[in-house]
Design goal:
The protein is of the alpha+beta class. The protein is built from six helices and three strands; from the N terminus they run βββαααααα. A three-stranded antiparallel sheet has the order 1-2-3, with no helix packed on it. Helix 1 runs antiparallel to helix 5 (113-122) and helix 2 (73-83) crosses helix 3 (87-95). The protein is elongated and about 105 Å long. The termini are far apart. The model is unreliable at 11-26 (pLDDT under 50).
Length: 155
């Protein structure tokens, strides 16, 4: 006769989740008790040392993206195309819930002047911003000179 498995301790409320902190080998892992089983909670929650700096960063990047692209579905698709990030990540960045990390921030700054300006302002590098604006003005003047030359009557 086969024996049926029965847990040693039955949970009186099987749908209630209780957290248990278990220290294993110097690492703390969080487990929840669900229907009599101990199940590890997946994922890592990392808090920034300075929450205000993190919040300022997230808001600055979000505002820059909304200034450049708006907050519509095509804006999300554009961000995804620029960075290769997922749909959910692009939505988080645009909504100001989370900020892009390393490589994605570089890709956004490469494609969006507003993101680059926001990044430089957060890094207190205003001189680079002036240099970028001068390069943009020079490019605009070169285009304007080419248009004037093309429209001028030839003698």
């Amino acid at each position: 006769a086969a024996r049926r498995y029965r847990p040693k301790y039955s949970n009186p409320k099987p749908l209630e989740r209780t957290q248990n902190w278990i220290k294993l080998g110097g690492k703390v892992r969080v487990y929840i008790e669900e229907m009599g089983k101990m199940v590890p909670i997946k994922g890592t929650i990392v808090q920034a040392r300075n929450a205000k700096v993190r919040d300022d960063y997230v808001l600055a990047i979000s505002e820059a993206l909304r200034h450049d692209l708006g907050s519509s579905a095509p804006a999300i698709k554009t961000i995804m195309r620029w960075t290769g990030a997922s749909n959910r990540a692009a939505k988080y960045w645009l909504a100001g819930e989370r900020g892009p990390g390393g490589w994605h921030l570089i890709q956004l700054a490469r494609n969006s002047d507003a993101v680059l300006h926001a990044f430089l302002m957060m890094a207190d590098r205003d001189i680079f911003e002036v240099s970028i604006e001068l390069n943009a003005a020079q490019a605009s003047l070169t285009r304007a000179a080419a248009i004037i030359k093309a429209l001028a009557p030839r003698s």
